[in-house]
């Protein structure tokens, strides 16, 4: 019997030595990883089923603002509330780190983020500290939808 198949999905921080696994997972889900560093991975939550990574989400904090990034769920685990669970866990983490507002950019998941309480916003309305992130400046195209949520 495959033990991974009967284990529950557990959430935790990034483990030592798994940075390349996490970035590979994010990349496989179609998201960019060019600017993800070990320092940024300290602010990620990883969903695991046994030894397998099945979801990720992170924040890039900038004072009381943060950029939510890399919310990704493996295909077999989508539409099973794992994305919602990751978003809610990251919101708690952000609040615990004195973040008051979350921003994000999305090309494909506007409906999902709306369902968990994010609102669309003009990209130019984001605070300068969010606009100064590499994701905002160069990695995510201008066609991406900007969204925010007050915590």
What labels describe this entry?
single chain; 151 residues; alpha+beta; seven-stranded mixed sheet; 6 helices; 7 strands; 30% helix; 30% strand
Task: Give me a quick take on this structure.
The protein is 30% helix and 30% strand.
How would you explain this protein's 3D organization?
Helices cover 30% and strands 30% of the residues. The chain contains six helices and seven strands. It has a seven-stranded mixed beta sheet, with helices on both faces. Strand 3 (52-62) and strand 4 (65-73) form a beta hairpin.
Specify the biggest β-sheet.
Answer: 7 strands, mixed
Helix proportion: 25-40%
Provide the residue-averaged pLDDT.
93
Beta-strand share of residues = 25-35%
Structural class per helix/strand content? alpha+beta
Q: Give the overall shape, derived from the CA principal axes.
A: globular
Order of helices and strands: EHHEEEHEHEHHE
Low-confidence stretches: none
Number of E-state strands: 7
Please, what is the oligomeric state?
single chain
CA distance, first residue to last residue: 43 Å
Which helices and strands occur, and which strands form pairs?
Layout: E1 9-13, H1 19-28, H2 38-41, E2 44-49, E3 52-62, E4 65-73, H3 82-96, E5 101-106, H4 110-115, E6 119-121, H5 128-131, H6 134-139, E7 145-150
């Amino acid at each position: 019997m495959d033990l991974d198949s009967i284990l529950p999905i557990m959430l935790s921080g990034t483990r030592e030595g798994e940075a390349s696994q996490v970035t590979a997972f994010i990349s496989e889900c179609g998201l960019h990883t060019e600017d993800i560093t070990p320092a940024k991975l300290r602010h990620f939550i990883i969903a695991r089923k046994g030894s397998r990574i099945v979801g990720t989400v992170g924040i890039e904090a900038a004072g009381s603002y943060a950029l939510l990034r890399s919310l990704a769920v493996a295909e077999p685990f989508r539409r099973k509330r794992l994305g919602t669970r990751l978003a809610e866990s990251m919101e708690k983490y952000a609040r615990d780190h004195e973040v008051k507002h979350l921003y994000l950019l999305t090309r494909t998941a506007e409906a999902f983020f709306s369902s968990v309480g994010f609102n669309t916003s003009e990209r130019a309305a984001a605070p300068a500290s969010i606009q100064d992130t590499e994701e905002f400046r160069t990695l995510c195209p201008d066609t991406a939808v900007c969204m925010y949520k007050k915590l």
